[in-house]
Amino acid sequence: MAWLKIVVGAGVLAVLVILKVGWSLYKKRHIFEFAKNFNGFRFYPIFGNFWQLSNIGYSDFFDAVRVLARKLGLPLNFWYGHSYIHVTDDAEAIKVILNHPDSLDKASFYNIVKVIFDDCLLVYKAEDWKVRRKFFSKSFNQPLLNSYVHYFYRNSNVLVDVLHNDYEDLFSVFGHYTFDTFCDIYVGKSYNLQTDPNNRLIEELDAVQKYIGESSVVAVTFGFPLDLKGLVTNGWSTISLLNQLRKLSFSMIDFRREELQKEPVVGSQLSFLDAMISRGDLFHPSIMSKELLVFLLAATDTTGNALTFIFTLLGMHPEIQQKVYEEVITEIGRDAPIETDHLPKLKYTERVISESMRLLPPVPMVARYLNKDIQIGDKTFPKGANVIVYTLALHRNSKYWPNPKKFDPDRFLPEEIAKRPPSCYIPFSGGPRNCIGKLYAMMSMKVVVANVIRNFRISSKYRSVDEMEMRGLITMRTKDDIDCHFSPRK
Ligand code: HEM
After folding, report:
1. In ligand 1, which atom is closest to the CA atom of 427?
2. Is ipTM beyond 0.85?
3. What GO annotations for molecular function exist for this entry (predicted)?
4. What's the CATH number for 50-488?
5. Which atom, in ligand 1's list, is nearest to the CA of 426?
6. What percent of the chain clears pLDDT 70, i.e. is strictly above it?
7. pTM for this structure?
8. pLDDT attached to residue 226
9. 218 band by pLDDT with thresholds 50, 70 and 90
10. Residue 435, annotated as binding a ligand
11. Please, are residues 487 and 163 in contact by the beta-carbon 8 Å criterion?
12. Alpha-carbon span 30 to 189, nearest angstrom
């Protein structure tokens, strides 16, 4: 009789699976209709586009989107498991998606980030996110940000010393600057990554990202964030690294708490970390730790990679580099300390930074989940769709950017900006769920560009951005070491 039980059990299970799949397909009927309007692969139950994706050859999630976009053209569709993904570089669609109250949730594949970092500002569901974002936004007011300029300057002086010596990897050099500055400002002490060549924290953080990237290959293919091979080979080191990071964040919080007891800070002077510490009733230490880590990671790689790209592009364009140099010497001088009042005067420098982030956006894509149908032009984007806003492609879309691969900072002259839809330029994402650290990042990058350019001539062998092969999941960087050199000015 045991075999009968097994047969009946298996039969019941099969019926349940068929019903579940059938119900899932029935609920998606409006998505199938919508998908017919765009390039992409046909949907296959359970497997989604497993076979098609396996055949195109890609190394991480970003790569999969890039390869598909090149092969099929944009906008396009694909399926991972039963999740529908729509990829777009259309400014009109992007404006609506990033601003609509029904698409504030992050796309389902952000769960890969959740598996690693748990819930936090970057991935909260909309309702929780709104409350937290309102709380943290108060700490990014302009007067408080202005008070950070001397930290940017102090740490950029250390960076200048580092660039005078040998270093291994430029992304790490700038990553170390952003990490040290962040801790100097928010924790109240420097971790001296810039001056400690044995400290591998940034490289390890990059390894975590790489792991997420590799896991995402399986996630893209099967539709869930599990990479057994990766878990066996890299999983343990990733878990132990995350534990180290957690310990580090707890020690930062303890240190800062003690500092605040000695020297209290109040009102609009409270940074996001001080604000969390002062509201211990709202923030359990484990929540504080997650939020701190996410801010730290969101600030470090992004700004570090952006700086690496800015200097490489300046190295490729000596005439533009000369104009930045002349502006810095005129507005600040050869040796004067860089102060808050100098920053608004660096107008050409700002255009260079903006143009660099257009051509090489540090975050190549962001994605949202549609909680309801959303009308965009003559199409109804269906509830349940995951929409990837493909920033890199948008920023190089010739519909908005003539001669898109040309590095031309004058695209950001006010009269040129006025000619374009604002949503065709979104290095910090857009709408209410954009980057909270946007102004902080712009100020930090201006200080670094000014201080480095008055000390060094920069060169690079690249003739076109096409020569740089990119990789990335959350942030983008070159697959190999980047070619960019700093020679001291006499
Ligand atoms: C050049 C530097 C930076 C770039 C290009 C950048 C870009 C972005 C982008 C595109 C997003 C949206 C991500 C998504 O929707 O998946 C984002 C979110 C975020 N960024 Fe930045 N970021 C930069 C620097 C910073 C800095 C310096 C900080 C902190 C001081 C920061 C903190 C955050 C946080 C906390 C979020 C999540 C915001 C939310 O969901 O409400 N970022 N950033």
Report:
1. 5
2. yes
3. heme binding; iron ion binding; monooxygenase activity; oxidoreductase activity, acting on paired donors, with incorporation or reduction of molecular oxygen
4. 1.10.630.10
5. 10
6. 90
7. 0.93
8. 47
9. low
10. yes
11. no
12. 54
* Phi/psi at 261 (5° precision): -65, -40
Q: Coil, helix or strand for 457?
A: strand
**Tokens representing residue 327 in the block:** 């502006």
Q: Are 361 and 391 in contact (CB under 8 A)?
A: yes
Residue 225 preceded by cis peptide, ω within 30:
no
Q: Which residue's CA is the closest to the ligand 1 atom numbered 40?
A: 122
Atom of ligand 1 nearest to the CA of 124: 40
Which pLDDT band, with edges at 50, 70 and 90, does 473 fall under? low
Q: Both tokens of residue 419?
A: 């000619």
Which residue's alpha carbon is at the smallest distance from atom 1 of ligand 1? 303
Tens of pLDDT along 238-293? 677 777 888 889 999 999 999 999 999 989 999 999 999 999 999 999 999 999 98
- Residue 467 gets which letter from DSSP? G
Q: What residues contact residue 295 under an 8 Å CB cut-off, 6+ apart?
A: 121, 182, 186, 272, 273, 437
* Residue pLDDT, tens place only, 35-55: 999 999 888 887 788 778 777
Q: What pLDDT, on the 0 to 100 scale, is given for residue 461? A: 97
What is the rounded CA–CA span in Å between residue 298 and residue 320?
A: 29
Closest CA relative to residue 232, chosen from 211, 207, 209: 211
CA of 434 to the centre of ligand 1 (A): 7
Q: H or E segment at 164?
A: helix 149-164
Q: Can you give the residue ranges of every domain in the chain?
A: 1-30, 50-488
- Token reading at 273: 């970390």
Instruction: Output the ligand 1 site: residues, CB below 6 A.
Output: 121-122, 133, 294-295, 298-299, 302-303, 306, 362-363, 366, 427-429, 433, 435-437, 440-441
pLDDT of residue 387: 97
Angle at the Cα of 199 from the Cα atoms of 196 and 201, rounded to 5 degrees: 135
- Ligand 1 center to residue 436 CA distance, Å? 6
Q: Find the helix or strand (DSSP H, E) in which 94 lies.
A: helix 91-99
Q: How far is CA 282 from the centre of its chain?
A: 27
Whether residue 78 contacts residue 56, with contact meaning beta carbons closer than 8 Å, is answered with no
Indicate which atom in ligand 1 lies nearest the CA of residue 444: 27
Q: pLDDT by residue (tens digit) across 192-213?
A: 999 986 777 766 776 766 666 6
